[in-house]
Amino acid sequence: MPEIKFYNRAPVPMEMHKVKIVQKLTLLPAKERLQKMYDAGFNTFLLHNKDIFMDMLTDSGVNAMSDEMQSAMLRADDAYAGSETFYRMQKKLEEIFGIANLLPTHQGRACEHIIAQHLVKPGNCVIMNYHFTTSKAHVTRLGAHVEELVKDEGLVTKSTLPFKGNIDLDKVRACIAKEGADNIAYMRLEAGTNLIGGQPISYENMKQATDLAKEHGILTILDASLLQDNLYFIKKREESMKDKSIREITRMVADLFDVIYFSARKFGFGRGGGILVRDEKLFHEMEDYITMFEGFLTYGGMSVKEMEAMIVGFEETMDFDVISQGPQFIAHCVKELDALGVPMITPGGGLGAHIDARQVVDHIPSDQYPAGSLVAALYLCGGIRGMERGTLSEERNPDGTEHIASVEMVRLAFPRRVFTLSQTEYVIDRVKWLYDHRHLIGGLRFVHEPKTLRFFTGKLEPVSDWPEKLLEAYIADFGADQ
Ligand SMILES: Cc1ncc(COP(=O)(O)O)c(C=O)c1O
Asked: What letters, b where the CB count within 10 A reaches 16 and e where it falls short, cover 265-301?
């Protein structure tokens, strides 16, 4: 996006699109939100969408489509087998990534399931710059373990480092020496590292890490779900790449990897997923899992309409204007909140603005879920739905103790092309109010705790009557109808 200059005021991020279709929003009165929160077991995943004003839970499957994407749906070729839509999708992905072998899946975790199921054996190690919830769960489920080898500075919440997602090459060398290359199922690098705040990884670091893996015969896998934000940051922050087009950068990144997979709920602005496999033999071995778990090889569980829209979405991802909007809105939100004294993960990354919950509610012990408490409070005080990304999102240790997350965050996702600047300003205002009243927020405890991915469906309760007290203060300032 060109940085549009202003005559008489400081520049603000600009939407490089206009609105054609809208969805009405409702802001429930404060006390009704309190009841909804109790009904949802203080878990924002269990709220109903109709009860939410600003849905910043995720960008997954809720990015706005363009007119071109919507209209492409009409040409979808409905066929169980041999749909032309699939061949168009394959051709577009080959054009962008240079790999022709495509396995279609219904979403990102389906790719992770198939990759892990085929490549991971009990006792194996999988190297990652950082884990994502589902990518780790699929590995540990098979009796293997994940080594997260992000550079230490990637976990420093307040920073000016441009590429906090970079993997530490010394740690990789040490891990290979300790585990033995034969025991390492693969190295998975995640673009736009989700759980440390949508932080990018540089091209240079990807190149060095994949070179090292190849030296030891280790398979290299790119999780490209958040690649679009990462591409923006490579172009903006990596000096040697600033004159390259997004298409050129994408191809350079792709050329480093043996396997590339993506959630098309993010990459491509649709709902689906896919795995690109360079090696013919590996590709054919993995095909069996598609027909067993996903669907036939030319749709993989996706609607052909979505696939057709996605093809346009992949092309739009190569447009710098399109991929700039998310990171620029996020940077604005992070900068404003940081200036207001709210502890934020800096610099702003992709995907969303991330609040450093451990700092905000430092009076809440980690085993009472500081980020879980803060995200619940934010719904109560403003109807904003964010996502907990901290200890609650971790699985317990094998001995049943809590696995305390290294970073405790509340994520406010910016689904692409969805929110306006005035909505962003509202969020900034409510977060600031909550920060100024943070001492009123208390902890949570589980009343129903699922064994796997507990953050999705677990139910909790407040450890005291803090939600009622917090809401009293909120109503005193804003009135009961907001
Ligand atoms: C980096 C990353 N990988 C994988 C996934 C899983 O994708 P999906 O939600 O489509 O299953 C996600 C989802 O948020 C993600 O952010």
From this structure: bbbbbbbbbbbbbbeeebbeebeebbeeebbbebbbb
In this prediction the pTM is: 0.95
Nearest atom in ligand 1 to the alpha carbon of residue 273 is 10
Contact present, 366 and 347 (Cβ < 8 Å): no
Residue of 59, 131, 132 to test ligand 1 pocket, by largest number of atoms within 8 Å of CB = 132
Closest CA to 312 of 64, 33, 36, 48: 64
pLDDT 10s digits, 20-41:
999 999 999 999 999 999 999 9
In a mutational test of the pocket of ligand 1, which residue from 266, 409, 414, 455 has the highest number of ligand atoms less than 8 Å from its CB? 266
User: 130 CB less than 6 Å from ligand 1?
Assistant: no
- Give which of 260, 203, 268, 263 is closest to 230, Cα–Cα: 203
Say which amino acid occupies 266.
K
Q: How far is the CA of 442 from the centre of ligand 1 (A)?
A: 30
Q: Please name the fold of domain 30-59+322-478.
A: Aspartate Aminotransferase, domain 1 (3.90.1150)
Average pLDDT rounded to a whole number, residues 109-127 = 98
Stretch(es) of the chain classified as CATH 3.40.640.10? 67-317
**Do 127 and 278 touch, CB atoms closer than 8 A?**
no
CA angle at 272 for the pair 266 and 273, rounded to the nearest 5°: 80
Answer yes or no: are the C-beta atoms of 160 and 140 closer than 8 Å. no
Q: Write out the catalytic residue numbers.
A: 80, 132-133, 223, 266, 389, 455
Question: What is the C-alpha to C-alpha distance for residues 219 and 277, in angstroms, rounded to an integer?
Answer: 11
Residue intervals of the chain classified under CATH 3.90.1150.10 are: 30-59+322-478
State the pairing for strand pair 259-263/273-277.
antiparallel
* Distance separating alpha carbons of residues 397 and 196, to the nearest angstrom: 20
Does residue 271's CB lie within 6 angstroms of at least one atom of ligand 1? no
> What is the pLDDT averaged over residues 86-102?
98
389 lines ligand 1 (CB under 6 A): no
Give me the sheet containing 352-356, strands edge to edge: 352-356, 409-413, 387-389
CATH T-level topology, domain 67-317: Aspartate Aminotransferase; domain 2 (3.40.640)
What pLDDT, on a 0 to 100 scale, did the predictor assign at position 140?
Answer: 95
The Å distance, Cα 433 to ligand 1 centre, comes to 31
How does DSSP classify residue 344?
A: B
Q: pLDDT tens, 2-15?
A: 678 899 998 899 89
